[in-house]
Design brief:
Length: 140
Amino acid sequence: MKLKGTKLYGSVMQKCPRCHEGDLFESKNPYNFSKLFDMPKHCPKCGQKFLLEPGFYYGSMYVSYALSIAYLVAVFVAMTVLYPEFSVTEYLIIAVGSLFLLTTYFFRLSRAIWINFFVSYDANAKEKFDQEKKEESKKG
């Protein structure tokens, strides 16, 4: 199954939605808190702008909320199947504790999903960008 070129690949791998080669975040580690929010202005491989408009990523909060709810439901179902005698306290400790640990990953994943809603994959984006750079260097 070929995933590269799909929105799923761009979102999960947190790559540029246009070329799927450049990274969306400067640090790959979501637990590097000093660089948690740092994103390049443009993709170094294809030139795609990552901040499409001011406040663009506010919409990713809705995606993050949906991911968190889906995760909490999945933990509840897993606990119901694997450990049917669990108490509400045990569920809250496990679910909320693990959700707290996953918050930075969900933050980045929601931004990647959000930009993939609006930017389509272009298999030739890198070549087009390289061609534009060559033309600019000839002019200047």
